[in-house]
Design brief:
The structure is a homodimer of 461-residue chains. Chain A has helices spanning 8-17, 26-32, 53-66, 118-124, 142-147, 155-158, 161-164, 193-197, 231-243, 256-266, 284-300, 312-323, 325-330, 350-363, 390-409, 425-432, 434-447, and strands spanning 22-23, 46-48, 70-73, 90-93, 100-104, 109-112, 130-131, 165-171, 177-181, 206-213, 215-216, 220-227, 250-254, 275-282, 304-309, 337-340, 370-372, 380-385. The first copy, chain A, has 461 residues and is of the alpha+beta class. At the A-B interface, β9, α8, β11, α11 and α16 of A face β9, α8, β11, α11 and α16 of B.
Chain lengths: 461, 461
């Protein structure tokens, strides 16, 4: 056990503020020093569990005075090393701030604390007839989802955290409390600080309250599964569906290996072939109309076995299996890790980009299922690597580098929804150019001149 | 005629860069020193007409070296004094940068120069089957619309410039060229600089290229007009429609005085009563479904004469009349100006906020039609003032102050779509708090330390 690097006075101050809610125990630090990424753990020196914005502000003031880094922590489900305490410091675990503050059902909005998870939110507002659509694979916290600009399977219809956060409260590096945005559906009042906080990955502020848009539960929902002769055909079906302007709620691609992984992990009996999962939302007539259009498009591209999941429990099982796909794929090689890629390209470029990526996987003998939110042009490759093999990891990293360059050549982005985190900082200038990175750096410097908020994330150091 | 305050060397440099495209003529400066707001004109010292991003960058480098302010200029249709050269300097007129750069019809996006107007864009892409929905009253430039985070009559369905700008190129105060965002539908790659530029009103960068989302022209469109016994009833109909989750494309309120103004100005024969304009987009069946729901809701609140505009030319006439409402209302008192308010509140607060505002108008004997994009909770009061009467103006300003405080008390914003500009800076801290304003100021300082980009706008000086 290493000596704790925190000043004793800081720990005393924190313990005085949050009696019983400060831990320096090895097990607690270990739990907070890792996430779902393939990066090696990096432990914080202490973990604190605030309950209120004021407590987070007080923690920030104390850490700021002591010059100690702060790392916000939610569900720990990051795939990009967001929570790694690579410069040590205090991990601020926000999961005990898990209260729904105010539901304004008549305005379709809700204000929550950041530790509320997406499933918890939907469970608690069920009786309102409203729901919150954004669903990354994990049951992430809403604070973490805002911080990483997360999305999920139905962003194609409902947008991402960027479009669905109306307002936020955030604690700045020096402990000042920023309130931005609000409950109005639109505003042209000054710089869009709410959008600046979304996707800043805890490097500009610690989100302590969020106001989110909600949507009426559709009158009718229908889900379906369809197999295709090849990934290429499935992707062409997606492109055609999007280009026809069908307001589809979900359209997800799984390649054969992903389907095999899901069948093994989730005990499903899906046909093991390139597959699309669909979901349609609307009025009963609207859903019928969308579904028949998409069924016709599927046939055009050789789709077979268009099978329906009409009962809510069948739909839940289908989407739970989709959400568990990450764990299912990792489970293909027990004990291995996954380097999970996240590129996103314009829909017209999707087919070429995926085809070249599949060639690359085959040419390099990687075990790497492909799946993703292809209605947005976003797909993931889960490159499975043996943690004992440095060579494996190097091959995965080299593949990732090629994939990102390929996506950028197709006018895409290195990350559709996972964020930059610790692992993709080297791609930031490649994607946006040096001027954009220097502007981001100037903003970071203006808001956090001591570089205390989640250091070594987003911006290359 | 005042002496030109610009260094002679700067004018020479600009003339050398842009031969024949630099003007210091009084008439040109007067044209560029005013907009549609009620503020007195403030003339720039020179006006330049660049054609490319590189030219704008060169202008910025020259002005930066000379310490001279720069004011971007589009259609001059601002209602908030955005283009007033209150510290003198060089007006950068972007209207000659009016080319559509690339249309990606298959990806539903288009890249344009900033001087392209919304009507020009829709005319030029007509054959693609796509359209750009955002429509402020004026035929504004898309650069200006992005800079002010504009919206219009169908934001309730399609969002504002915030949601519809995918990427942008902007020239910074020192002439560096920032590229941000891109063509992917979503990205989690770093700070959202595109959203920071949207609504920054030319104070952080000069937008020289924009990539915008487009939408398929709906299979079916239907528009209708309905009268109500009172504004209160009309607003309750709006609230109910929104709360039912009807995906309405447009739902606009006009009070009796607005309708009278429109009839006089646009030679229409609308019944002179509180009125809603509706538009429905979707499949033929979808539009029928929406329309019959809304018709039923209208009846519930005493709506009568639900009359349809089914032919495209009737619809165009209806919406042109709506878009001309601003000029129609001003025309109620020829020679007078309008102080145009722009508050936006959560939909549940709309009825109370409008009722209190009407009481205020009556109690103070103002001539002030009310109209607006009530599906978003956004409404305008056009307070007509005699420019010859300082008392009139003071009464209008006092009314505006009360209205903004009322909207903020209803958890709204001082501006839904017009921006802060020159006139609302005093409300920024009231709405967002001192911390938010200080963060905005820190960002401005980081990006434009010499305060050369559109000084005295957005942030109170």
């Amino acid at each position: 056990m290493t000596m704790n690097r925190l000043p004793a006075a800081l720990i005393e101050t924190l313990e005085h503020m949050l009696p019983g809610r400060v831990s320096v125990a090895q097990a607690v630090r270990e739990h907070h020093g890792r996430d779902e990424s393939h990066f090696p753990p990096a432990l914080p020196d202490a973990v604190v569990f605030p309950h209120t914005t004021d407590e987070v502000a007080a923690i920030a003031r104390a850490c700021h005075a002591a010059g100690v880094p702060m790392i916000p922590f939610g569900a720990g489900s990051s795939l990009e090393g967001h929570v790694l305490a690579v410069r040590g410091g205090v991990c601020i675990d926000l999961t005990q701030m898990n209260r729904i503050v105010t539901l304004h059902a008549e305005d379709f909005d809700v204000t929550v604390q950041p530790g509320v998870t997406r499933k918890q939110l939907n469970a608690e507002i069920r009786d309102s007839g409203l729901f919150f659509p954004i669903d990354p694979g994990a049951d992430a916290t809403l604070g973490g989802m805002a911080a990483t600009r997360a999305s999920g399977t139905n962003a194609v219809r409902y947008g991402t955290m960027r479009e669905n956060l109306l307002g936020a409260t955030a604690v700045l590096a020096d402990g000042r409390v920023l309130r931005t945005g609000g409950r109005a559906r639109k505003s042209a009042a000054g710089y869009d600080l709410a959008r600046l906080m979304v996707g800043s990955e805890g490097t500009l502020g610690i989100i302590t309250e969020l106001t989110l848009k909600l949507y009426p539960v559709p009158e009718a929902i229908a889900a379906a599964v369809c197999c295709f002769p090849s990934v290429h055909d499935a992707v062409r079906c997606v492109i055609q569906t999007i280009q026809l302007g069908v307001p589809i709620a979900r359209i997800e691609l799984l390649d054969t290996l992903s389907v095999q992984a899901i069948n093994a992990y989730s005990k499903t009996a899906l046909q093991e072939a390139p597959t699309l999962f669909f979901e349609f939302h609307g009025s009963a007539a609207g859903v019928d109309e969308q579904a028949s259009t998409v069924q016709a498009v599927s046939k055009e591209f050789g789709g077979t076995d268009f099978s329906w999941a009409n009962r809510p429990e069948d739909r839940s099982r289908l989407w739970q299996a989709r959400h568990d796909a990450y764990f299912a794929c990792i489970n293909l090689k027990p004990g291995w890790r996954s380097l999970t890629t996240d590129v996103c390209v314009p829909i017209s470029q999707l087919s070429d980009c995926i085809a070249a990526t599949r060639d690359d996987i085959e040419a390099n003998g990687l075990i790497a299922p492909i799946l993703g939110h292809v209605g947005d042009g976003n797909f993931h490759v889960l490159v499975l690597t043996d943690p004992a093999s440095p060579d494996d990891n190097a091959r995965a990293e080299a593949f990732h580098d090629r994939l990102v360059r390929r996506a950028l050549a197709h006018e895409g982005t290195c990350t559709g929804e996972h964020g930059i985190g610790f692992g993709k900082a080297q791609f930031l200038a490649l994607e946006h150019g040096e001027t954009a990175v220097s502007v981001m750096r100037a903003i970071k410097q203006a808001l956090d001149p001591l570089n205390l908020l989640n250091p070594a994330k987003v911006l290359p150091e």
